[in-house]
Amino acid sequence: MPFFVLLFFLKHVYKIWLSPICETRPYSLLSVYNFSLCFSVFFKASRGQVDEMSIEITFTPLPPHDSLSEQPSTSYTPSNSDWLSMFQIPWERMPAALLHAASNKEKAPLGPRREFVRNVVTAMRELCPNPNLADCGEVAKQIFSKHSLTFGDFSEEGEQLGKGYSSLQRQLKTRVEHVNRDNVAHRIRQPKKNTAEQELNSCTVKKVRCKVDSCGCINWQPTSMPDGETTESLEMKRKVLLEKFQSGGPHSTELSDVDNLMQETYIYQRQMINSCPPPAISDIEVEWPYLFTKRGLCNHFEILTGIDISSRLSECLIGKSKRIVNYFQKQTLKWNAEVQALLKEIEDTPATNNKTAISAILLTMKYFKEKENSLFILVDETSTEMSIETEQTLPATPRLIMLGKHKIYNKQPICFFAVFMVTFHISGDKLLTSSKWMVSIEGKVTHCIEEKLDFAAALSALFGCFYVFNIEYQESASATLELIQRIRFFVRINPEGTKCAAKSGTSRKTGSTVKRKVQNVNPHVHTFLQSLTEFEWKTSN
Length: 541
Prior knowledge:
The protein has 20 helices and 10 strands. By secondary structure, the protein is of the alpha+beta class. The strands form 4 sheets. It has a 4-stranded mixed β-sheet. A two-stranded antiparallel ribbon has the order 1-2. A two-stranded antiparallel sheet has the order 5-6. It is globular, with a radius of gyration of 31 Å.
């Protein structure tokens, strides 16, 4: 029995003394001493003499503290190369309707597609009980490569959305999580970061440019100077532009020579904007004031992305906003109280040229459970640039300032046949009635949209700022902005990536801070587009 007592003692010594040290300071104490501890245990059984037994416990020396950064990560990462190399897509288990759609290169029907996804996941789990998202992506890529038109993500115009198989990848992973919902053994849990580490990561200064900065751009940073140009000649042209702006103001942007000079100095503009650490918006405005006019911004955006954002938004807003509004109005009882209240407000608001376009954006924000002030700021229609900066707390990320709130007065008509007085309160807090707009970035008004221009022009200026000035989408409005960006809605920029790289965000249900998965395509946006397509297909037949 003394032998087992000693084992019990050693177990608790490790648990109480050594284990906490190894967890909190694994490379401090044990790396200093290279030692081994030997115990010899002698005992006699209750009957007879038992041979001497020795137990040697050796603590292997750990690497020195200096080599810590060279050690590979010890966090559990499942290997997917082995089973993926052996995995075969169960094509023989495709439903008949899906085979017919694939042979005719048609879109997959929803029911047969879900059935095939279940069959594929069943086959995957025979080799790997819990495939991760990357594994599901590899399988989805194989399916997409063979039947791209049947399983792929494409717009009405035939443009591929992102990688083309993001929805199929997410559908496979959702099925995997569903079948593993009660199986604790097959779950993969990543170690949580402590609060200090999270704060350190959030406060780290950006030292290099990353892919999100150039997401969707075709001319983000030109490498060769225009013919006959040097840095000195471009600097001289920048000073000429500065003089023209100082003498003619923002209206001088209409001059043809200003457009030519801005185009010739494009590479010089990008060198400043893309410099690291990123320059402040106020510094860019001092050097390149024409970028803070609507015309100069949109011309720069066209060279950057190859898209005339003003004309494209104007065209799309006319017809596609009506489809969005119709989608919500025809299913009023399906939506929550906030969406229903907005639909009632839209119905009661008099028709204007901008009403339908503004309504479509606001309805999608309600659908995504994003607050209106994450993208719009409502101010009095008589406000000026100076008064807005003085009276409002403008956020760092871009906002569209809507000048449409009427002043509120209390009318108090006296009733001569009664002893009391009746008070009527008139409210005019409506984004839908806005007719003038401004854009703010980093706490100040940067763009004032001319009164003759419409909401499409204001939205193009707001959206253009994210790309021209390398600004990530704010997480609080990321779904709405990505919907505007991607297919079928407005701009139709469909890169493999996202403009929102935030790894944490605010829960739309609880309001608390939660971890956020960075995906190529926002799943809420894709779900909305699919629902819109299904609704229009059902109502048209």
